[in-house]
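To illustrate the input format used throughout this study, we show a single complete record. The first block contains the structure-token representation of the backbone; no residue identities are included at this stage. The design step must infer an amino acid for every position from geometry alone.
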């Protein structure tokens, strides 16, 4: 299944201008797999990727399944598509770098947790990541999908404002797939043993801050830290919000890298 997902990763249709997958740096050494959020694109993590690259990390930023191309691709994306494509992206990053850290925004953070349930990764950072949504959303999605299956809803208000590249709307069916992804990942959190940094804004109106606490409290990682920011919003990987968390993420990954290579090798 991973081979099939990897073939798909290499045969994407045309990407949205500015939302293409990208890589920074050379092969070898320490690398970061940077995962964007639902309805977004790699553009969402570009500023963070540039900061990481300036601090000595290579960065690979793929597009999630069904993203950064055409909204019809998102409508056809399944839970397994998300999981298999991110597994393929991680395997490709492992071939590119000596060590791979994973940083994920929003659902990208949830998918990063999925990776960590399957294998011990060098280090993990989740930013505004959900393992559950607000109760009203969970309750309304199946009802709306049953009675109004073709309904589209506005999504990614930062894309509406022109601050990021992504889809401006989505179907209820696509949201239901996100709920399915969370339902798949949440019960397996106790399998996560990688060093973990959980970052979340207390002003996040998209993902409840209690989700961040649930991640921190339910993983098995001995090295874990929860950082709650009393500012910002859901989209913490672009300026001006990135300034609130960038140094914390860099310092966390550099500490892990120093432990992995104590003599700078």
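Output of the design step:
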């Amino acid at each position: 299944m991973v081979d099939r997902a990897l073939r798909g990763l290499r045969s994407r249709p045309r990407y949205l201008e500015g939302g293409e997958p990208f890589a920074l740096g050379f092969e070898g050494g320490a690398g970061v797999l940077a995962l964007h959020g639902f309805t977004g694109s790699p553009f969402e993590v570009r500023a963070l990727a540039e900061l990481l690259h300036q601090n000595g990390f290579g960065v690979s930023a793929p597009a999630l399944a069904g993203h950064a191309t055409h909204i019809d691709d998102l409508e056809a994306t399944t839970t397994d598509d998300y999981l298999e494509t991110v597994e393929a992206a991680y395997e490709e990053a492992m071939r590119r770098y000596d060590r791979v850290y994973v940083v994920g925004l929003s659902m990208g953070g949830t998918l990063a947790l999925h990776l960590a349930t399957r294998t011990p990764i060098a280090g993990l950072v989740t930013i505004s990541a959900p393992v559950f949504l607000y109760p009203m959303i969970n309750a309304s999605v199946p009802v709306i999908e049953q009675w109004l299956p073709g309904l589209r809803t506005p999504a990614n208000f930062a894309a509406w404002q022109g601050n990021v590249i992504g889809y401006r709307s989505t179907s209820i069916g696509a949201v239901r797939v996100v709920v399915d992804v969370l339902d798949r990942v949440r019960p397996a959190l106790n399998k996560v043993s990688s060093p973990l940094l959980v970052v979340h804004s207390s002003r996040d109106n998209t993902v409840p801050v209690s989700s961040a606490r649930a991640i921190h409290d339910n993983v098995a990682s001995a090295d874990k830290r929860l950082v709650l920011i009393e500012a910002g919003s859901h989209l913490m990987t672009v300026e001006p919000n990135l300034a609130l968390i960038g140094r914390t993420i860099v310092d966390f990954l550099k500490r892990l890298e120093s432990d992995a290579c104590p003599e700078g090798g």
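Structural context for interpreting the output: The two ends are 35 Å apart (CA to CA). The CA atoms of residues 28 and 143 lie 49 Å apart.
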